[in-house]
Amino acid sequence: MKTKKSFNHLMRVLHRHIGFFILGFIVIYAISGIALIFRDSDFLKYEKKIKVTLPTDTKSSDIGSSLKIRDFKILETQGDVIYFKDGSFNTSTGEAEYTVKELIFPINKLVSLHKIPSKNPLHWFSLAIGILLFFMAVSSFWMFTTRSKQFRKGMYTALAGIVFAVILLLFI
Question: Where do runs of H (alpha helix) occur along 22-148?
């Protein structure tokens, strides 16, 4: 005769299997999250030179948006050449030359997976991983029976983690 398994047992089994299943994704999100912390530095980046031809009638105020450069500022103008941080634009030829810093392979792929926009069909993967991570956090409360010493210790640890997270959010 088959015995009925408890809800706690079901949650432990799901927690275990889902945890093993999303292990690779957790590693990807951890590595890409660490890399994103250093996005304002040159850590794990290399320089890439880019040459683009823009229309010669491009206004100086539109150069930054045309080249997709954030915080674009013109440093100086000498004759037909407009100089900006890490590059220049020749108004007579329309040639723009500039340097960008990009993440090395495979970190660039991990970060692109971490930053998938909602327009990309792959955003469903990120959404599913987020939901599964949320499940992992919530299902951990069913690892032990509510009367056990381990459950009580786990609740104190969870409370400490929640308080720490709220404090961290308040000071960012």
Answer: 23-37, 63-67, 107-114, 123-139
The tokens describing 70, both together, are 């954030």
Domain termination site, one of 82, 103, 124: 103
| Of the residues 57, 88, 103, the one at which a domain ends | 103
What is this structure's pTM? 0.70
Q: Is residue 19 part of a domain?
A: yes
The pLDDT tens digits for 100-153 are: 999 999 999 988 888 889 999 989 988 999 999 999 999 988 888 888 999 999
DSSP tally for the chain: helices H, then strands E: 6, 5
Rounded Cα gap, residues 11 and 151, in angstroms: 14
Q: How many residues does the chain have?
A: 172
Q: Are residues 52 and 80 in the same domain?
A: yes
Angle at 89 between CA 87 and CA 95, to 5 degrees: 110
Angle at 82 between CA 78 and CA 86, to 5 degrees: 120
Same domain, yes or no: 64 and 89? yes
Banded pLDDT at 2 (limits 50, 70, 90): low
Between CA 109 and CA 77 the distance in angstroms is 37
